[in-house]
Specification:
- It is a single chain.
- The protein is of the alpha/beta class and about 575 residues long.
- It is about 50% helix and about 10% strand.
- It is built from 19 helices and eight strands.
- The protein has helices at about 30-35, 95-105, 115-125, 135-150, 160-170, 175-200, 250-265, 280-290, 305-320, 325-335, 340-350, 370-380, 385-390, 400-425, 435-450, 455-475, 480-485, 490-530, 555-575; strands at about 65, 75-80, 85-90, 205-215, 220-230, 235-245, 270-275, 305.
- Strand 5 (about 220-230) and strand 6 (about 235-245) form a beta hairpin.
- Helix 15 packs across helix 17 (about 480-485).
- The N and C termini lie far apart (about 135 Å).
């Protein structure tokens, strides 16, 4: 007679806390019944429709919760507690997909206890799981940081840095300075190749700027920068080279160096111009390198003198004999900044006249004229404070008189024109070629006006500056005037008006005729280089006579209308831009 086995009740945790017994017999298993089930896994499926007769023994369920409603096929669903992703929770599907999700869940805390329990099954001990790290990406990020922040190669070998990296991830492999140097050189070669392909693909010509320096150890260095308009009509600037320049620093030697750089980049046939300072060796350099390049219009517009450098020479020449009033200003600034007590004493008067003490006094440097301008600007702002300071401090004897204050204001307004023009010429985020013509005209008319001044100092300074100005800008640069013609704010009428002011009513026509010829020659050069020859099947003959330079004549009525309106607009724009000059 077979011995009957009584059914073993299986406990189910219900929402009301009651325990119910299973009505179906289940075979007893000594091994399973003796196994201790963790309280963390004592989970069941909620809802009366999805009661199960067995406890959930997998450790993955601590990371999921069951949903009350099934899917459209009646399957039981569970949801990740961290990200809310739902999965099929039927026992027939297993828990493999749930374990894989735990490992890849992006919103999951890697110090989660459940994951530590899962990982302990392989190693036998609890451990936290960290995201994997890509060694190549890590090395490139470190190399980029060293280049961007100008750090030494030994930075990667600092003990503190290595401890920080190890703390963030124990598997990180910190490289040596030699490996880091090799990575940076590899990055340089890759970026250089990309830039070379990028510049050879653009359709515009490239303008260059170059300069030379001498270090404290008297080593010479040369730089080469490319400026161009990309295919999206955006102004771009790239530093191509900064390298050691061995002696001699002659024009022939520099031309050989720059020519080799251009051939290395593959842009020797795409050069438009190069901007250099006014050193005598640069004139030889520009003349020698012309023969090595494929230049437009035979290289007539290749060598461009640095406008900011010329202005610096012009103003420095005029400020060689400084006025006594400026000397007093310089001594006043030195006196007020001579000690902490004098500085605090002066600040009390600044507060008394209700001025902002954050601006501060600026001390000039004799070799930099713009520092003299900034010094005068700061002193004029604190003029009232200086006057009160003189009354309370008997040792302060350098305060300018009333007449000297008037002269200082006049010198300040005079230098402000040069300072503003220099800032315009020194811009790097916008084109400056179209700014040259109106600003140089502004300086020229200002010098002419001050040359007739009754102030002896201003008259003498203006005459010296105009002499230096005429040395470099006796004639306007043609290529810069072309840029003004292409500027819709000015057009050709502004050039015509400016030539009248500069050359007079009788000479301006011949100078303007020369400019027209050069302008048309430049247009022809670009037309033959970039023009697309139309097919013969689509070509049409026209009764209109073409101009000498390939431009179809404009309707006379239209031309007259445009001329009158553009002339009117140009004069208005000139008036607004240069309001301190009177149109005569």
């Amino acid at each position: 007679m077979e011995k009957s086995i009584d059914p073993i009740p299986i406990d189910l945790t219900e929402s009301d806390g009651e325990r119910v017994q299973d009505s179906h017999p289940v075979k007893a298993s000594t091994k399973k019944s003796s196994k201790k089930i963790s309280n963390l896994t004592n989970l069941t499926k909620p809802g009366s429709h999805f009661k199960r007769q067995r406890r959930l023994t997998s450790e993955v369920w601590v990371n999921y919760e069951f949903l009350d409603e099934p899917d459209e096929n009646g399957n039981l669903l569970c949801k990740c507690k961290k990200c809310g992703t739902t999965y099929n929770a039927d026992s027939k599907n297993g828990t493999g997909n749930l374990k894989r999700h735990i490992q890849n869940c992006k919103r999951r805390n890697y110090l989660d206890v459940g994951q530590m329990i899962i990982d302990s099954s392989a190693s036998g001990s609890l451990q936290n799981r960290l995201p994997s790290i890509n060694a190549d990406i890590f090395r490139e990020l470190v190399a980029s940081a060293i280049v961007r922040h100008d750090l030494p190669f030994q930075f990667a070998e600092y003990d503190g840095i290595r401890k920080c990296f190890s703390y963030l991830h124990p598997d990180v492999k910190v490289v040596s300075r030699n490996t880091l140097k090799a990575d940076i050189l590899k990055m340089y070669r890759r970026e250089k190749s990309n830039l070379r392909e990028y510049m050879t693909a653009i359709s515009s010509r490239i303008s260059l700027t170059s300069d030379c320096w001498s270090s404290i150890t008297t080593d010479g260095y040369i730089s080469l920068t490319a400026h161009f308009i990309d295919n999206h009509w955006t102004l771009q600037k790239r530093i191509l080279n900064f390298r050691f320049l061995p002696p001699p620093h002659s024009g022939v030697h520099m031309s050989d160096e720059v020519c080799s750089m251009l051939k290395e980049w593959g842009i020797q046939k795409k050069i438009m111009s190069i901007t250099l300072d006014n050193a005598s060796s640069n004139d030889v350099f520009a003349d020698v390198i012309k023969s090595e390049l494929d230049l437009i219009c035979g290289g007539d517009y290749f060598h461009v003198r640095c406008c900011a450098h010329i202005l610096n020479l012009v103003v420095q020449d005029g400020l060689k004999e400084i006025d006594d009033a400026v000397i007093k200003v310089r001594e006043s600034v030195k006196y007020c900044k001579g000690s902490q007590a004098k500085r605090q004493h002066f600040l009390t008067f600044v507060a008394h006249v209700e001025l902002d003490n954050a601006r501060g006094l600026r001390q000039d440097v004799p070799t930099r004229w713009n520092s003299t301008y900034l010094m005068l600007e700061s002193v004029l702002y604190y003029k009232k404070a200086f006057i009160h300071f003189q009354k309370s401090d008997a040792n302060y004897i350098h305060c300018p008189t009333t007449d000297e204050w008037v002269r200082i204001e006049k010198i300040f307004r005079f230098l402000k024109v040069f300072y503003d023009v220099t800032k315009v010429f020194s811009g790097t985020l916008y084109p400056t070629a179209n700014m040259y013509f109106p600003n140089v005209l502004k300086v020229r008319l200002l010098l002419k006006e001050e040359m007739g001044s009754t102030d002896k100092f201003m008259n003498k300074m203006a005459n010296k500056m105009y002499e230096k100005f005429s040395k470099y800008w006796a004639n306007f640069s043609t290529i810069m005037a072309v840029a003004v013609v292409l500027d819709p704010r000015f057009k050709f009428q502004f050039v015509e008006w400016a030539y009248k002011r500069v050359y007079g009513e009788f000479e301006y026509e011949s100078e303007l005729s020369k400019f027209k010829d050069k302008f048309n020659a430049l247009y022809d050069a670009y037309y033959h280089e970039f023009a697309i020859v139309p097919s013969t099947s689509h070509s049409h003959t026209s009764d209109n006579k073409s101009g000498q330079h390939g431009v179809v004549d404009v309707d006379p009525v239209c031309d007259e209308f445009m001329t009158v309106n553009f002339l009117y607009c140009s004069i208005l724009l000139f008036y607004f831009n240069f309001s301190n000059l009177q149109l005569q």
